[in-house]
Design brief:
The chain has 146 residues and is mainly beta. The protein has one helix and eight strands.
Length: 146
């Protein structure tokens, strides 16, 4: 058995303007999960996304984190059109995609972490290769009433 076939790679090269640092006057820090190598179908934990306040976060605001993917949540080898689909999820038992996370001001002020991971489709019949995708976490400050 070819080792490379059973070790698909999910590259979470997280692209954020100023990731893991304070964002202007809003005074919060967002920390994305580290890169991960996928080694199995099914659940693969990415770790956590974390939000915290550098100063008291405005209680009339909330943080909304939106998750997107370069390949439409599909691991692909090179320029191939076919790939291995996966879902971005909040917990191991989830069967639906979690691509939006909302954090209240109280949660930001308390410094909360949200577990995240991916549920990867079966890749046992895929051709040999290194399959990758890039996940992007975008953070936006919104009015809490919205």
């Amino acid at each position: 058995m070819d080792i490379r076939k059973s070790t698909l790679s999910l590259l979470t090269a997280l692209i954020l303007s100023g990731a893991a640092s304070a964002f202007g006057d809003d005074g919060y820090t967002f920390t994305p999960p580290p890169p991960l190598r996928i080694t199995q179908t099914g659940w693969n934990s990415l770790g956590t996304i974390t939000v915290s306040a550098n100063t008291a976060f405005d209680t009339s605001k909330k943080l909304v984190v939106t998750v997107s993917s370069t390949n439409g949540f599909t691991l692909k080898a090179g320029g191939a059109s076919e790939g291995v689909a996966y879902l971005h999820a909040a917990n191991e038992g989830d069967s639906s995609s979690a691509i939006t996370f909302t954090f209240t001001a109280d949660q930001v002020n308390a410094g909360i972490s949200q577990p995240v991971g991916v549920i990867v489709d079966d890749f046992s019949t895929m051709d040999d290769g290194i399959y990758t995708d890039e996940i992007t976490y975008s953070v936006e400050v919104q009015d809490a009433a919205d």
